[in-house]
Specification:
This protein has 467 residues and is α+β, with helices and mostly antiparallel strands. It has 2 domains: 155 residues, Chloramphenicol Acetyltransferase (2-Layer Sandwich); 266 residues, Nonribosomal peptide synthetase, condensation domain (Chloramphenicol Acetyltransferase, 2-Layer Sandwich), CATH 3.30.559.30. Helix content is 39%, strand content 21%. The strands form 3 sheets. Strands 8, 9, 10, 11, 12, 15 and 16 form a 7-stranded mixed sheet that branches. Helix 1 packs across helix 13. It starts with 6 loop residues before the first strand and ends with a helix.
Length: 467
């Protein structure tokens, strides 16, 4: 008689991400790595076996439970690494456009829920090298944890990357103000998240009590009320009904030193500079399509990590959200940067991220149908998801091959049609955009606008330096 598979309850937050999955709104964290010297499939298999499968979650599948009960993790009795690794050859000419097209197609394909929720595709024929595209479901972990896990598969030399390693240790950079601010929030989260969960359930279950709770000064309720009572975002061409096809695009590398020069003369942060250029790119895209941008502001939901730096390799979802009003209506890039910095500084002093973490826990305690209603309410208040992950400062090697560059994309819950990712790696910064094909069929035009905004900010920084 076969042994009964061991079961493990899914956390409330992870369950919420499981239930957000829809055919036209997949909840996957996806990423691509490029290799100038092709990665060897056999060496990759060995690396995945030795380093990735030490995490039990990558051998477990999700088993959904009846209504009012959370899903659970269960060891896949038929697990085979070959079911999670596929090999393709890109059609000619094998350039970036060809790779981008295939990545977009993979980004639009759901994972197989009869198996553990991850998959790796080797894409041969990319220039003289190849690429690797990886998809992992958000219920396994959030973006910060998954980037940490992926980096733990690597090493700082080709030889070391081929050896069996001890327990993997992530090597994320400590740069990035949102990143550091989030880590500091951990102690606060531990102390107050239970109360925030209870307050959040009250707020989400009884909307008529929102103002009463806020007036009473109930812990966390005022912040929760401010999130729930936010007005819907204005209508732009970035919002609308979603379809299944998505489009992935990413920028060329921008030297991190160039960004730091702008930061120094503006007294901002690297995040401030990059988000300012990104907002400018969105503004240019709208104006090219004759959409009014006067006094336009819309929100980006920004995930904020709440796990401590020494626990970055722990799976699961441990993040809150802050809602950043992007000053799209400001044309001058320097004025836009100063306004964005002011808004970001205000958010950093607030409890938004910690309260939102509690609210995600609360959502995970409700039936799946109610979860979708609540998530869609928050989606109406947001136009995009925007995240900045500080990656490794030095080049890394995977299965004997050097990673020449990498990019990732975040999922967008609540019927949001655009995800924007910023990733630094080996002294370079890249911008990634994933859009719904029916809303934004040409996200590379947003990236072109980002380049132009960075050029404008660089020119201003050079001007100041010359004076």
């Amino acid at each position: 008689m076969p042994a009964t598979p061991q079961k493990e309850s899914m956390s409330n937050v992870d369950a919420a991400w499981r239930h957000m999955e829809e055919p036209d709104n997949l909840m996957m964290v996806s990423g691509v790595m490029h290799f100038a010297d092709p990665i060897d499939p056999d060496q990759l298999r060995k690396t995945l076996q030795d380093r990735l499968l030490r995490y039990p979650r990558f051998r477990q599948k999700v088993v959904d439970a009846p209504i009012l009960k959370t899903p659970h993790w269960e060891e896949d009795p038929e697990f085979s690494l070959e079911n999670h690794l596929s090999y393709e050859v890109l059609p000619q000419p094998g350039d970036k456009a060809t790779l981008q097209q295939r990545c977009s197609e993979l980004l639009s394909q759901p994972l197989d829920f009869e198996r553990p929720l991850w998959h790796v595709t080797i894409l041969d024929g990319f220039g003289d090298g190849n690429a690797l595209f990886m998809r992992i479901h958000h219920c396994i972990a959030d973006g910060i944890a998954l980037i940490s896990v992926l980096i733990s598969l690597t090493a700082e030399s080709a030889e070391a990357s081929l050896k069996q390693s001890d327990k993997p240790r992530p090597r994320l950079s400590g740069s990035g103000n949102l990143f550091k601010q989030a880590a500091k929030a951990w102690d606060t989260t531990l102390k107050v998240s239970e109360q925030f969960v209870q307050d959040s359930i009250d707020v989400l279950s009884h909307p008529t009590r929102i103002l009463d709770l806020a007036k009473q000064g109930t812990q966390g309720a005022a912040t929760a009320a401010s999130l729930v009572l936010k007005s819907p975002d204005p209508h732009t061409l970035f919002r609308g009904d979603l379809g299944v096809p998505k489009i992935a695009a990413w920028s060329q590398a921008v030297p991190l030193e160039d960004v730091k020069k702008i930061r120094q003369v503006t007294n901002g942060t690297v995040n401030d500079v990059l988000l300012t250029a990104m907002a400018g790119g969105l503004r240019r895209y709208l104006r090219e399509r004759e959409q009014d941008t006067d006094d336009l502001n819309f929100r980006a939901a920004v995930p904020v990590n709440v796990r401590p730096l020494d626990k970055m390799d722990e799976l699961g979802n441990q993040f809150g959200l802050v809602f950043l009003e992007l000053p799209i209506g400001i044309e001058d890039p320097l004025d836009r940067l100063f306004e964005l910095k002011k808004r970001m500084d205000y958010i950093k002093e607030s409890q938004q991220a910690v309260v939102a973490f509690g609210m995600l826990k609360a959502v995970g305690m409700t039936p799946a149908d109610i979860q979708k209603i609540i998530v869609n309410i928050f989606g109406a208040k947001t136009t995009c998801v925007m995240t900045n992950v500080p990656g490794p400062r030095a080049p890394l090697f995977l299965a004997g091959s050097e990673i020449s560059d990498m990019m990732f994309w975040v999922p967008c819950s609540g019927r949001v049609g655009m995800g924007i990712s910023i990733l630094s790696y080996a002294g370079q910064v890249r911008l990634g955009i994933a859009t719904d094909a029916g809303l934004v069929p040409d996200p590379e035009r947003i990236i072109e606008g980002f380049y132009r905004e960075m050029d404008a900010l660089t020119a201003l920084a050079d001007q100041v330096a010359d004076n």
